[in-house]
User: Fold these one by one.
Assistant:
Number 1:
Amino acid sequence: MEQTKVVLADHEIPRQWYNIQADLPKPMSPPLHPGTGKPVGPGDLAPVFPMNLIEQEVSQERWIDIPGEVLEKYLIWRPSPLCRARNFEKLLDAPVKIYYKNEGLSPAGSHKPNTAIAQAYYNKVFGIKRLSTETGAGQWGSALAMACRMFGLECRVFMVRVSYEQKPYRRIMMNIWGAECIPSPSDRTEAGRQVLAAHPDSPGSLGIAISEAVEDAVSRENSRYSLGSVLNHVLLHQTIIGLEAQKQFEKIGVYPDVVIGCAGGGSNFAGTALPFVRDKIHGKQVRVVGAEPASCPTMTRGPFAYDFGDLAMKTPLLPMYTLGHDFVPAPIHAGGLRYHGMAPIVSHLVREGLVEAKAYDQIETFEAGVKWARTEGSIPAPETNHAIAAVVAEARRAKEEGKERTILFNWSGHGLVDLAAYDAYLTGKLIPYQLPDEEIQRALKAIEGFPKP
Ligand SMILES: Cc1ncc(COP(=O)(O)O)c(C=O)c1O
């Protein structure tokens, strides 16, 4: 019988994360201080993050040890299985083998705990008592709420208002784990009050929620900010996914031709792909594809530029593909993919031609997600559906070209708390949405005059 699940025993879990900065053929442009235009130093970030995470953010070491207390928590659900989607393959009727890492098995239901647990741990050992964060779909907020509870930290989450209203169950999960969840924009911060004064009905955006969470963290003692994607240390923690996948493939003597992930801020995609990009840098033939929404087409239609990570311009200037920091995306259902920028590491790899980007309309992604649910059974998160749409597109291409292909993708989370989105799709209420060019041109005015990477 051919194997459908490849599992690792607890003792086979990787003991180190992988830092791609050590292998980049060309170094990345540094983040800049907006006031001086000079690269930011660790001291500039100290009010926002604990120094042990800042060290990881700037580290050039190839391998970074995973602390024992983090491994202990990972073992609650990791190593996650590498599964073969045979039923979905049959439906697609194309010459493809489809493997996926099931990150939906974590207690919070997505890949997000891989970094939430690490970040809560490093803050705790640095002496921090309380974390603030933002969340889009609620996946990140619930993961950090759980991680904070595990390490005895208080947690406050600013949740993008449109998702807060569409997804009450994520808020309840955060409350179960003991965190406070506030719809953003809110009247709790100066940044939130300014947005509400100008747009009382603002649906919110990740950029606004980040501004609120950073302000909330830096204005209190023993409090820090935590980000669920984009930054180097977050992508680093997620490499556990790709490292496990490599060990699992080795066990069955397979190597993928294509590696796919959906990309919001870039963390699950990078976490899955970076160990394979390392192989690619060293000569291996492998394609690496990031799938984003057509309504928030950061990598496929935005410029590579220096921009702020948030609306209130409180972060350093990051070198990334961006739609402009004041971009407010349409309220599509993949809340976790509605970020105006893309992780600097992923952006750098796209620019260097090591990673490809593709955009999918939300209708196409739900179509793919429902096909998946009707064959493999599990119901994917709306974000994950973008990766599945990319798998469908790869399978179609393989069929047209008559070429066999082995695909790996990251099943980044389950959609059991996103059923309203499926209901909207099944009852014909979802509409296709392509971002108009004028909207991109308008948003890009916000970064005119910034330094160029
Ligand atoms: C299930 C799931 N997949 C993907 C994403 C996108 O985030 P990232 O690009 O950082 O992996 C999110 C974000 O909330 C998510 O919840």
Note: The chain has 18 helices and 15 strands.
Number 2:
Amino acid sequence: MANILCIGAGYVGGPTMVVIAKHCPQHRVVVVDTNAERIAAWQSDRLPIYEPGLDEAVRVARGRNLFFSTDVNRHIAEADIIFVSVNTGTKTFGQGAGKAADLQFWEKSARQILEHSTTSKIVVEKSTLPVRTAEAMEYILNARGTQGVHFDIISNPEFLAEGSAIGDLERPDRVLIGGRDTPSGRQAVQTMMDIYANWVPAERILTTNLWSSELSKLTANAFLAQRISSINAISALCERTEADVAEVAHAIGMDSRIGSRFLQASVGFGGSCFRKDILNLVYLCEHYNLPEVAAYWEQVIKMNDYQQSRFVSNMVSAMFNTVAGKRIALFGAAFKANTGDTRESPALEICRELLAEHAAVVLTDPHALENARVDLGDAAKRVTFEPDPYAAARDAHAIAILTEWRQFAELDYEAIFKDMIKPAFIFDGRNILNHRRLHELGFNVYAVGKAPLTHFGTSNSGSGI
Ligand SMILES: NC(=O)c1ccc[n+]([C@@H]2O[C@H](COP(=O)([O-])OP(=O)(O)OC[C@H]3O[C@@H](n4cnc5c(N)ncnc54)[C@H](O)[C@@H]3O)[C@@H](O)[C@H]2O)c1
């Protein structure tokens, strides 16, 4: 039996430990966080994050071998293995501001571990970190000299995607474990492998050196985001040429070298990770004097920003070059379906840009309105939050689909159309609706990477999204 601790009860720490505890009843798993409200929510029936399957998984293990606490120091002292899953956002100050990873929470955790440890421990990097962070961690943790206490650092990045976190954790494509090639390093890697072996097939557990493991996480996110920016770049060309981006994606996706996933044109990627991890990669490349490599990856972000501002420009130009005072219903605040997370959500960026155009914005989302209100900050005062999409669309000039919630595809658009100001516009930023049918109902339909379907003459039909 091992005492497993996770510092950070967020979108990663929480679900990851829930699944470890579920499959390892022989181990005691404690998740700690300095945010008392978050811990209280993990202890309650109203969990702090929305994730399909999470409630059920929590019910299996909580109170049995899974515990949540704010007493960080006590649990550090008791732990054999400490996962650190704290936030590692982009630095907003000082050197590297706007690009480098902000490692203050990570380093604070390391120092806290050092201060409260009286026995040797394995410290696991679960947070996404710049390559070679483990070197600094080893230095800090082993700075006190041995005194009978030794720390082995393991890199074990998390590849779950929000919205499918529990399925991803239950059936991971792979688990990556990076460690030192020393006797205690190899032992630490083996201990980690033994934990995951409780439910993950052996062939899906990969071991590498520390630096490959750290860099693989940044690289995975950069490649995933690059695919989205690549298909979005093609969507812009489709709109000018009457090619259909869905047809192009399908045609290229059938090539087994390319593959069909992550080829959905949209308003772009969001979430807390892609942007910050690519910026971190760009910063690392600049640091190692590789400006061409940095510029290559930076373009992935520029294309994503372009896709969002292009979406708003096309809305404005389609609606006779002004949206000032017009009610616009934004369907979706979450950065993707099946999560309540609105961090870096394209929906919120589009919301801000429409507010700058003086539109009267109404935001609806089945699970993300509370987070949207917080993340919008001051701008929230000028937004109407409306849980019912039918009410949001009533008396609106336009609807924009910004999150691919299945519910939005299943609404009664005939009823919605009747209650809207005419001419009524629909901008499908996720390409989830039946555009031909909407056009037949009377909507002017603009989808990403497709020719618009309008009821105007050619003068207003060529802008596209
Ligand atoms: N969100 C994702 O989909 C995802 C996926 C893979 C990897 N990651 C990475 O995992 C890490 C965590 O991401 P997240 O989305 O869970 O972040 P999060 O902000 O939801 O959670 C981090 C938590 O750590 C807590 N914390 C910070 N410092 C602390 C300290 N010293 N002691 C105790 N608690 C502390 C915060 O209060 C917060 O609740 C990041 O490095 C991220 O890049 C995230």
Note: The pocket of nicotinamide-adenine-dinucleotide is lined by residues 7-13, 32-35, 38, 72, 85-88, 105, 108-109, 127-128, 158, 160, 162, 272-273 (CB under 6 Å).
